[in-house]
Amino acid sequence: MLAAPGRIAQAQLRLDNPAITGDVTTIIQEMVMNESYRILPTDHIANPSVQNYPHSNIVGCTDLNSPCKEVLIDFRQTLPGLLASNVSIDAGLKFMRSRGITEVIVSDEHLADLRGLISVRDILGRKSIRFAEQNRIRRNDIAVGDLMEPIRHLHKVRYNQLSERKVGDIVRTLRNLREKYLFITARSESTESFLGYFSLGYIASQMNTRLDTFSRARSFAELEHVLHKH
Questions:
Q1: 222-225: long-range pairs with CB below 8 Å, 24+
Q2: How far apart are the first and last CA of the chain?
Q3: Nearest to 74 by CA among 165, 195, 164
């Protein structure tokens, strides 16, 4: 089942509650970088339940010093794609290509609970092949829920912590967490709401670089050096 979200301003959320390697130059660069970009304090996301979901046509930034909100996929401005977890990966891939997007939010089969995120890279890369081999099933039988990044494994940051933060802060935080996504929330009285999320893949595309550039760098200082050469 494929589903498009309704016109909702924000998604309601209920919550239950690299090592530095190289020579001395690299170490010094990393010390300088510690002063330039800071790791944001994060919390785990636990058992979220959402009523509606918002996709992204955001104008992005080009460097690490840009305001981080320029690469925030903001649910209040754009409505994200939404797929039920039992949709096949081939149908999911077709859905993303039809909308010109590279990742999509995954919900439960009743479109009530947010389950995670899946990207085109997850479907077309080795991940789907490994899953089929490990579970001895055909690739055509794999569902998006099988390959998604479960939201319970991800982290969140409060929106009010983003003030004055740069793209470099988000990239450094994601590297520290070893994750590709960082959700943004806001609390109003007893309710906590998803406002959006940061995606390392989206940030890479806005900086006109490859996603694996972020993972190949041995340190954040090395990553900044590579990015500044572009």
A1: 222/22, 222/26, 222/29, 223/171, 223/175, 224/29, 224/33, 224/36, 224/64, 224/168, 225/29
A2: 42
A3: 195
- Residues found in the chain: 230
Question: Beta strands of the chain (E only): which ranges?
Answer: 2-3, 11-14, 43-44, 49-50, 73-74, 82-84, 103-107, 114-119, 149-150, 155-158, 181-188, 191-199
Q: What is the pLDDT of residues 114-127, one digit of tens each?
A: 899 999 999 999 99
Residues lower than pLDDT 70 in the chain: 1-35, 46-62, 111, 210-230
Quick one: pLDDT at residue 214? 58
Per-domain boundaries in the chain: 2-229
CATH class, domain 2-229, is: alpha beta
Helix (H) or strand (E) segment spanning residue 168: helix 167-177
